[in-house]
Amino acid sequence: MPSPSKSSGLISTPSLSPSLAQTLMSASLAYAGSIKVPINIWIFDPSLHPLLFHRMEGAKLTSIDIAYNKALTAAGHRLSTDKYGDKVNGLLHGIGRSNGGRFCTIAGGEPIFVDGVCVGGVGVSGGLPSEDKDIALAGINHLLRTLSANGPVKAKL
User: Fold this and answer.
1) How many other CB atoms sit within 10 Å of the CB of residue 43?
2) Strand, helix or coil at 34?
3) How far apart are CA 21 and CA 81, in angstroms?
4) Which of 22, 42, 58, 119 is the most exposed place for a label (fewest CB within 10 A)?
5) Which residues, in sequence order, are CB contacts of 90 under 8 Å at separation 6+?
């Protein structure tokens, strides 16, 4: 389907295709398996629609929602969830109650940027926050390497 012209007033929002989302997820799951951390992982598009979900055997059931909230926050705010840190007790006090209580400030939520544009977000939960972040970034880095094999890609992590 052709893209609408700029004169139509419509805009086009770049997003991960299902196959690219699967590429990212597969790499994250492989890394999680290699460090023996059973996780839940969500991948969202930039409009905050879920694209993919996977629960590894042994992953905590309560982490399903946490991973969802991390992906939602990262995709919606275009910022890593761990970047909020101490600000939630100061300047951003109460932000965790926004978005129906789904705003998450725990590491493991990462926006996905391709050519400087946010094309989605990934949320990982099941390990320590630092492990969740590393697992999310392993998937994003693999995705960016896959894309760069097909031509130049400007990444933002």
Assistant:
1) 28
2) helix
3) 19
4) 58
5) none
Query: Structure pTM?
Result: 0.84
Residue 75, both tokens = 């995709």
Q: What would the two tokens of residue 138 be? A: 């392993």
Length of the chain: 157
Reported as a single tens digit per residue, the pLDDT across 19-37 is 999 999 999 999 999 999 9
Task: Give CA torsion, residues 91, 107, 15, 143, to 10 deg.
Answer: 140
Q: Helix, strand, or coil here: 156?
A: strand
Contacts (Cβ under 8 Å, ≥6 apart) of 26: 139
Amino acid at 7: S
Domain boundaries, the chain: 16-156
- Find the angle CA(126)-CA(147)-CA(26) to the nearest 5 degrees: 30
Q: In the chain, what percentage of residues exceed pLDDT 70?
A: 79
Return d(Cα 136, Cα 100) in angstroms, integer: 24
Asked if 115 and 34 count as a contact pair (C-beta separation under 8 A), the reply is no
Strand locations in 3-39, DSSP E? none
- CB of 67 closer than 8 Å to CB of 35: no
Fold of 16-156: Beta-Lactamase (3.30.450)
